[in-house]
Design a protein that fits this description.
The protein is built from ten helices and two strands; from the N terminus they run ααααααββαααα. By secondary structure, the chain is an all-alpha fold.
């Protein structure tokens, strides 16, 4: 019996150890956040550049649509030989060229993405050349220029073959290619969910176990309910850990204050029960 009693720590000792464990899990979560945020910073910045490239490609798609509308308006007049393609067409195609140049800086699809960007730039040059030739050819030339802008893709069975349509379709295919590359960036290396979930859920599971043991001791030995602050501390720590496993991790200005608050709440949650032995009731 004496040996058995020696093996069971006093409730106050147990709570102090549990408090140290809970604070330790918060500290481990903060350390993991700093390491992952530092290592993944460059990777996230590259994904942001790719996201900007995708937006440029989509803007180019919209401008290509305006160029097509401009040709349609000119062909409706029936005097393209006198009016030319018009300023609207020239301005829209110039914006397409500018957006494609900007998108090249954020290319994340490697040589494949670069070759497709160059291919689309070639399509744009062909569209402009055909539109300029339409001044001499009339309506047939306008029709060829519009086909180069808005032609449908070829199909392999029921699936469209990428980069076999007109300029607008190729821009849509290019945006999809770069968007997939961006998602790969956000799911590889230090942003790999297979790495991040075990890293951040491990301390959280330990924290939940420690809090569960704490609740049992507080209920059985102190005849009290566990402090709600302890639950809030768990939720705050879990919020940071889960957010770090998503494609939009929190910044240090958000994550570190939240974890600091979680540590403070966890410390304060144990204080009343430990104070009962420090200042015993009369």
């Amino acid at each position: 019996m004496t040996r058995a009693r020696l093996r069971v720590p006093h409730p106050v000792v147990a709570l102090r150890r549990l408090r140290a464990g809970v604070l330790g899990t918060v500290a481990v979560t903060a350390l993991l956040y700093l390491v992952v945020a530092d290592r993944a910073g460059e990777q996230i910045a590259a994904a942001d550049r790719t996201g900007a490239a995708v937006r440029h490609i989509r803007e180019a798609y919209d401008q290509a649509g305006k160029a097509n509308d401009a040709l349609d308006a000119v062909s409706g007049i029936g005097a393209i030989g006198l009016t030319g393609t018009g300023d609207d067409f020239a301005n829209a195609t110039a914006r397409v060229r500018s957006h494609l140049t900007s998108a090249t800086e954020g290319n994340a699809a490697g040589e494949r993405g670069l070759s497709h960007i160059q291919f689309v730039q070639g399509q744009l040059a062909t569209c402009v050349q055909l539109a300029n030739t339409a001044v001499l050819d009339g309506a047939p030339g306008v029709a060829r220029a519009r086909d180069a802008l808005d032609d449908a893709p070829e199909y392999d069975g029921s699936r469209p073959v990428p980069f076999t349509g007109g300029l607008r379709q190729s821009l849509r295919d290019l945006a999809l290619l770069e968007d997939r590359a961006r998602k790969d960036q956000l799911r590889s290396g230090w942003r790999d969910p297979g790495l991040l979930w075990p890293l951040f859920t491990g301390p959280l599971v330990v924290m939940l176990l420690l809090v569960g043991v704490t609740g049992r001791i507080v209920v059985r030995r102190f005849r009290r309910y566990p402090s709600p602050a302890l639950g809030v501390a768990v939720l705050a720590t879990a919020a940071v850990g889960v957010a770090m496993c998503t494609t939009a991790p929190p910044t240090a200005a958000i994550a570190l204050p939240v974890l600091a608050a979680a540590g403070a709440l966890a410390y304060l949650a144990y204080r009343p029960r430990l104070a009962e032995y420090r200042f015993p009731r009369p």
